Structure of tRNA dimethylallyltransferase:
Amino acid sequence: MAASSARCVWRRAMVPSLVVILGATGTGKSKLAIELGKRLQGEIISADSMQVYQGLDIITNKVTAEECAQCRHHMISFVDPLVNNYTVVDFRNKALALIDDMHKRNKMPIIAGGTNYYIESLLWRVLVDTGENKDCGDAVDEAGNRMRELEKLEGSELHKRLAKVDPKMASMLHPNNKRKLARSLQIHEGTGVPHSRWLEEQRGQEGGDELGGPLRYPDPCIFWLHSDTKVLNERLDGRVDEMMSAGLIQELRDFHIRYNQQKVQDDSQDYQNGIFQSIGFKEFHNYLTAPEGISTEEKDKLRREGIEALKIATKRYARKQNKWVHNRFLKRPGNNVPAVYGLDVTDVSKWEETVLNPALQILDRLSKGEEPAIAPIRVEGAEQRNKLSYNTCDLCDRIIIGDVEWAAHLKSKKHQYHMRKKRKSDPDSDLPASTGEPPVSAGTSPSEDCDETSQDYSTHVRL
């Protein structure tokens, strides 16, 4: 069936109210968004935390001028690269206003991007808005500076401070999770209200549950573009090679000289804020900062190392993005988790057959109030899982966050080794003979807001 024959007719009261396209980097999210936008009178909102900044167009894989001409895009290249306090709250406020405006103009909002917590901020009421991100530059700067001050402290000190003002929140966070500890302290300092209480109010809203706040829109249509891992890895390696051919090195060099060189000389660059944390820029740090007298052979070696590091980081990020889809949508039962329709992008030669036409057919049925012939991906498992339970293993000297991760640790070879060693040195110990469970300190907790990172909070860190 030709793509043109699967066209959707939209009522003024749009169903669905918006389309969200999820997927790892390199799966074709922008391609599908543009093709749907042209057919559905839609406009695209980029949900990419690096594409909001001006510059580094190649490394952040921004849409081209030709692609923008096919369908209107928003939230791309409007933040100065030296701004380092642009937050997900800023994104959410601007994007929600855009969605409202599109609805008034009878345009279909299409959200496409790979920054998970940006997407969550639009789908769910999950952020704590303390009022610090309004149109007040001084307040925003002060909040950003305070976060950086807190993050300079040791994780143990942050955890100790948080335990005094918000013990419930402290029980959910790993001592090494400095950013979230700092964020919780900042929220308490700015509002006088414990972060955990904000989250309890959030869950108590109509439509909310133990997993978090309610959906903003009752009927989103969500597509997940997925691919065979081996095929995707090869595609990502190829994309890095294409970036090199498109002038990536020159782009990085120019950006480094203009925005980064002085920071490096002043020893003030940590690659943890703003556009400087973009995958691809920091991987070429050694190449970009190499001494002028370095030999051609040494320079080429640093260049090759940068390319390899970029390929590794890109594939690692793709795995993280897919893991988030599994954890946030497919393994989290609840009334506020919308259906997800999977589209296989492994064979791009069959794009219309396996991606575009199925997406159009699903949207057509939804627009008519009918159930799509293609079923959404079913939730894996029906039980509630506490992803923030705080567990300690005295044998292995570790803190592990999350029920599933804790169960996996108990079965791990390292834990079993310590079990055998303990039983051998202390035959009278009360450890079980087979799987042994050391003393556990666990806390049940609500879902954390996703201000700084995605909802994948499971942490394994040696103390």
Notes: The chain has 16 helices and nine strands. The longest helix spans residues 296-330. The CA atoms of residues 24 and 321 lie 5 Å apart.
